[in-house]
Design brief:
This protein is of the alpha/beta class and about 550 residues long. It is about 30% helix and about 15% strand. The chain has two domains: about 200 residues, Glutaconate Coenzyme A-transferase, CATH 3.40.1080.10; about 300 residues, Glutaconate Coenzyme A-transferase (3-Layer(aba) Sandwich). Strands 1, 2, 4, 5, 6, 7, 8, 9 and 10 form a nine-stranded mixed β-sheet that branches. Strands 14-13-12-15-20-21-22-23 form an eight-stranded mixed β-sheet. Strand 5, helix 5 and strand 6 form a beta-alpha-beta unit. It is globular. The N and C termini lie far apart (about 70 Å). The model has no long low-confidence stretch (mean pLDDT about 95).
């Protein structure tokens, strides 16, 4: 007779083996390596947090110290490959296969290891895609997670940086996997129960908080006049005519400039209350002046940001907070909100080709793409209307009767025509295609596909790809804002001018914007200290950003 509880029995065996190294649910930090060697089996699927910001750093270091003769060929499934230890696992032979979403800080090393055969790549996922596979075919046998505190029953308080933890625990615990949490302290009573103890099997007292990367902090002092110009173009040429109120901003100085222009430039345009009121967004410090000026009504967050805890607690009308006063972030829910409830995504990229595909892959870096493909895609399952969504749909498909016409999400790529180290933003062939060829991948890691991209903004102007009626117009619209890159220099000048007449391309002067007006005096804050002062001292910047 078939047995239907083999996975449950296997988990109970792991728990029994782990109990030899624990006192109840509590594992001492100095016994952690031996404990992991007892409960993890070679070939296991292991989810190690590994989030966008929050890192289970103690567990990562311990896992990198296990004996490869005892534990090897692990299949790592984690959102972010961020810490050096995440890749040490592969150098030491503890892990073999990797499925992930984002690898910003380790992008150069992961490229070398992939090309060197140290890592067997499963896929580079979007966040929601990877979360979905936790519940289908990548259910973890062991999850190594991080929380702020725990009680002795294993109830966890995850605090402001909850991020991916609920999703990882839900899939693992209810899929008969083992959940192990590192916490900053063991307490008698947690401030709020974010993860119930019956879903957590072991807890390790790290004796200090887990590491959090201040990923979304941008110093206004580093914002350039070119970035201010692109921000002015976005506000007047895109946000205003579409009336965008529900949106997501990607990471970058161009979007930080938009946030800092809301209480100044956008205020002068009379747009307060008409744009940028509801957000799916990490708590960007550069949004503080707009919040304080009354521009923002509500923000739901993927994660938190270092130094923002007191500010978030004091602005509970804006942010989702718990009974203890701290932020309740949730990456899966916020990704879903960004995908279905937002009318616009705007973010930066490293390369755009002539069709409008974009990627963050370069010849020597594999950064992944995190949630950008979820934010920067047109959700085919959306059914509720909004004015920007309907307007974009009408521009893309003017011939279909309105009741049958599908709307469109505005998906915008914004950047300067030449980026870091003078690398051109626009290329004939994406480096992602070269990566696919070198690694024999069946699918190139494209961040935002061309058929999702609706607008491209550079210092040359805005290309509205919704208004293009054939592939030649589409290509020339892209060339028309590509500046003095090789792609831009090969434009058909006559066709570009015809596109400009139809407002497919709009230059700054077409919008009444003088590039000489794009200066730092427009910024609502010009330094990190200005952001702190705007918050009334509630924002406490990380030490690396303090120069006073």
């Amino acid at each position: 007779m078939k047995q239907w509880d083999l996975r449950g029995k296997a988990r109970q065996a792991r728990i029994a083996d782990g109990m030899a190294h624990a006192a109840g649910k509590i594992v001492a930090a100095d016994k952690l390596v031996a404990f992991l060697e007892a409960v993890i089996l070679s070939g296991d699927r292991v989810c190690l947090e590994g989030d966008n910001q929050k890192q289970a750093d103690l567990l990562a270091r311990a896992l990198a110290q296990v004996d490869p003769a005892k534990i090897h060929d692990l299949h790592m499934i984690q959102s972010g490959v961020v810490l050096p230890e995440h890749l040490d696992l592969f150098d030491k032979g503890v892990a073999r296969r990797l499925d992930f979403s984002y690898s910003g800080p380790q992008s150069a090393r992961i490229a070398r290891m992939l090309f060197g055969g140290k890592i067997e790549l499963g896929a580079i996922h979007t966040y929601l895609e990877l979360f979905a596979r936790y519940f289908i075919d990548l259910t973890p046998q062991v999850a190594l997670i991080a929380a702020v505190s725990a009680d002795r029953d294993g109830n966890l308080y995850t605090g402001p940086n909850t991020e991916d933890t609920p999703t990882v625990v839900e899939a693992t615990s209810f899929g008969n996997g083992l959940v192990i949490a590192q916490v900053g302290e063991i307490v008698d009573r947690v401030p709020r129960v974010d993860i119930p103890g019956d879903r957590v099997h072991f807890v390790v007292d790290a004796g200090k908080p887990f590491y959090v990367e201040p990923l979304f902090t941008r110093d206004p002092a580093a914002i350039t006049e070119t970035q201010i110009l692109t921000a002015m173009l976005a506000i007047k040429g895109l946000y205003q005519p579409y009336g965008v109120r529900r949106l997501n901003h990607g990471i970058g100085f161009n979007t930080a400039a938009i946030e800092l222009l809301l209480p100044t430039y956008a205020e002068r345009l009379g747009l307060k209350g008409k744009i940028c009121t509801h957000w799916a967004l990490n708590p960007h410090p550069t949004l503080i002046p707009a919040i304080e000026a009354g521009w923002v009504e509500q923000i739901h967050c993927f994660g938190s940001e270092v130094g923002m805890d007191d500010y978030l607690r004091a602005r509970s009308d804006i942010f989702f907070t718990g009974s203890d006063g701290s932020l309740r972030s949730n990456r899966a829910f916020s990704q879903t909100a960004g995908l279905y409830a937002c009318d616009l995504f705007i973010g930066s990229t490293l390369e755009i080709d002539l069709k409008g595909h974009s990627s963050t892959i370069t010849p020597d870096r594999i950064a992944g793409f995190g949630g950008a493909p979820n934010m920067g895609s047109d959700a085919r399952g959306r059914r509720h209307p909004s004015a920007p969504w309907l307007q974009a749909g009408q521009e893309a498909d003017p011939d279909t009767p309105a009741p049958l016409r599908r709307g469109r999400k505005l998906v915008v790529q914004i950047g300067e025509t030449f980026g870091e180290a003078n690398a051109p933003l626009f290329v004939e062939k994406l480096s992602a295609l070269e990566l696919a060829e070198k690694l024999s991948l069946p699918l190139a890691p494209i961040m935002v596909y061309a058929d999702d991209t609706t607008h491209i903004i550079t210092e040359e102007g805005i290309a509205n790809l919704l208004l293009c009626r054939d592939k030649d117009e589409h290509e020339q619209a892209i060339r028309g804002v590509a500046g003095f890159t090789e792609v831009g220099r090969q434009r058909d000048k006559k066709m570009v001018e015809r596109l400009r007449e139809r407002k497919v391309i709009q230059r700054p002067e077409d919008l009444g914007i003088d590039p000489l007006d794009a200066n730092r005096s427009l910024l609502a804050a010009r330094s990190i200290k200005d952001l702190m002062l705007a918050s009334g001292g509630l924002y406490r910047p990380p030490s690396r950003f303090r120069n006073w």
